[in-house]
Amino acid sequence: MPTIAYHELTDYLNRATAADWPAVTLVCGEEMLCKKAFDGVLDRLLPEAERTMALERFDGGEDNLAGVLSSLNTYALLASNKVVVLHDARLFYSAKAQQTLREKMTQAARSGEIKKASRPFLNLLALCGLTFDDLKTATARRKVADDEDGEAAPWLGQLIDYCRESSLRIPDKKDDADLLKTAMQKGFPDGHRLVITTDFVDRRKALFKAIDETGLVVDCAVPKGETRADRMAQDQVMQTAIAEALHPAGKRMAGDARQRLIQWTGFDLRTLSGNLEKLISFIGDRQTITDADVTAVLQRTRKDPIFEFTSAIADKDLSASLFYLHSLLEEGMHPLQLMAAAANQIRRLLLARDFIDRDQGRTWNGNMSFPQFKGAAFKAVQADDTAFAALIDGWAATLNPPAEGKKRKTTATSDLVLAKNPKSPFPVFQTLKKASRFSLPALKAAMVELSATDRRMKSTGQNPRTLLEAFLLRFCR
């Protein structure tokens, strides 16, 4: 069966019947969306009145698959249908899951949600083949969490203590995927169905392909990146979540209130849901939630990505630059990281401004639209990148000639290119538009000043925040 995206599930549930439902259903992706999708699937498969006798739940981190399969092949008492649920399965994990688990663990732990952080933490340890005691060494710790100022992150000890005090164990490092795949091929008793939920799937795994082919996959994944497409997808999901919360309560939300709610919350559906409950309760009998209600009830909890900081710098937006600087520093980001991010952004603007000056209006002008840019102008940028790469390669060949009779090793590609992804011209278009606001001498001077700021930060003992603020005040004026 084809994979069903989360936003398509309601229509699918309206069309499908329990009798025709496949034997295995996989619900995967964003936690809150998975929960809503799972509830919808369970409502379709098993009426509330039958669940006492015909529903059995298992925990993917605690229970073994043999018990799940045994339950699937055992007939329910006084019921012809049966649903077995495997929550938070690890069957689809691979090395690719490590970064996702690290991010979920770190975000929850830094927010003080140690219990929520424990599940990805334990799964990450299992994937890495580590124990709690292994984390006493910096080498092992780096596989799980970044050290802060040469020491273990302050929340890591709390996390380990919580797991030990709660008798939570690290899951066995074994792969039961083949066992389930074989059981699926043999089949389950009529009317018996398995529903699996998980936060991460490696779509290359044979088990995933088998479920995708003969069962049903409900894809609740939402891109977490900072590209324009990713942010639009996140915004669409949040707007849907807001509508789903407001409709049953008979409430509306003003446009500026929606915008502030999303800005203050960020892409965190659990927090968004809680904030909406507070707002609905706060306004009482009133029908419309206003911006004043949002500012009166809520606090800003969004964790600002460094992208917001660098984007504000490129926009010469002093207020936003200072705001994100302070916010990121409060979140624990090191001042040198922020300075490096600012330097990378200005280097990119410098590269774009250099292209604009050399192009002299032949293909680019600041008033062109994006559809116009995708033609000759973008091809000119790509040609310029290619010429620059050849120049770098020529320099490398001169400085490091190969030994007689041997071929020279290929050098790493320089990061000084505008079109890093030939299939994504929009970021290049945006960079050129922003670079048009600066002169080449101004950008060169900014790089010199950043270098001086770096030296002062490392050698004078001056407050790093003050040094960065001073740089932003001069650059964005």
TrEMBL record:
Name of the featured protein: DNA polymerase III subunit delta
Can you tell me which family this protein belongs to? Belongs to the DNA polymerase HolA subunit family.
Q: Which Pfam families does the record match to this protein?
A: DNA_pol3_delta (PF06144), DNA_pol3_delta_C (PF21694)
EC category: transferase
Q: What is its EC number?
A: 2.7.7.7
Q: Which GO terms describe its cellular component?
A: DNA polymerase III complex
Q: What's in the keyword line of the UniProt record?
A: DNA replication, DNA-directed DNA polymerase, Nucleotidyltransferase, Transferase
Instruction: Kindly give the PANTHER family that the UniProt entry links to this protein.
Output: DNA POLYMERASE III SUBUNIT DELTA
Q: Does the keyword Transferase apply?
A: yes
Q: Which GO terms describe its molecular function?
A: DNA binding; DNA-directed DNA polymerase activity
**Catalytic activity line of the entry:** DNA(n) + a 2'-deoxyribonucleoside 5'-triphosphate = DNA(n+1) + diphosphate
Q: Is Acyltransferase there in the keyword field?
A: no
Species of the source: Desulfosarcina ovata subsp. sediminis
Occurrences of domain DNA polymerase III delta N-terminal (ranges): 30-99
> NCBIfam families annotated for this entry?
holA
- Which part of the chain is the DNA polymerase III delta subunit-like C-terminal domain? 424-475
- GO annotation, biological process: DNA-templated DNA replication
